[in-house]
UniProtKB/TrEMBL annotation:
Biological processes annotated in GO: nucleotide metabolic process; purine nucleoside triphosphate catabolic process
Function: Pyrophosphatase that catalyzes the hydrolysis of nucleoside triphosphates to their monophosphate derivatives, with a high preference for the non-canonical purine nucleotides XTP (xanthosine triphosphate), dITP (deoxyinosine triphosphate) and ITP. Seems to function as a house-cleaning enzyme that removes non-canonical purine nucleotides from the nucleotide pool, thus preventing their incorporation into DNA/RNA and avoiding chromosomal lesions.
Keyword field: Hydrolase, Magnesium, Metal-binding, Nucleotide metabolism, Nucleotide-binding
Protein known as: dITP/XTP pyrophosphatase
Keyword Isomerase: no
Pfam families xrefs: Ham1p_like (PF01725)
Amino acids binding Mg(2+): D71
Subunit structure: Homodimer.
Keyword check for Transferase: no
Amino acid sequence: MMGHTLVLASNNAGKLAELQAMFAPLGVRLIRQAEMGIPEAPEPHRTFIENALAKARHASAASGLPALADDAGLCVEAFGGQPGVDTAYYATRFGYEKSDANNVRALLEQMRGITDRRAAMVSTLVAVRSPDDPEPLVATGRVSGLITEAPLGDNGFGFDPVMWIPAFGQTFAQLPTEVKNAHSHRGRAARAMLELMRERWYPDD
């Protein structure tokens, strides 16, 4: 099997470890952009796909290598799909400092009295061979669930403690890590991306 190196347009070590494990079977090695001295790209857009594409192009242009980028967030039905691309900074809208715990707290406060608790965690992965690639590979993973009334579980990060997954009868934060990764929005997007790469980029491996 040939080896392929891609730049991961993220400096999140947890994300790198998760994706690295998923892409290893394809002989793909992911290098964090920080290791190449590439700064983070601006993310000015309102959609996951536009931000992921901007990040992938930026990393590819700076490195001269193919690049993979991820943009993800929580989309709450009652809020018209928000916070979406602003998920990481959700708490700051309500005067809290940026943190996972404050995000959870702010969300539960905003959802008080709302009966429609439907929400989805969405991950969009974009890969480009070069900054000018006319046909980026795009894969989306989505997990639907319900926002709980209070946090449950100690695993995971972000909104995992309040994201109830009916199929498991638990929140993401109550699931063992390997089960969560196998069924998470990022896991689903990564599997779809692997299939696209096998088919389009590396058919001869």
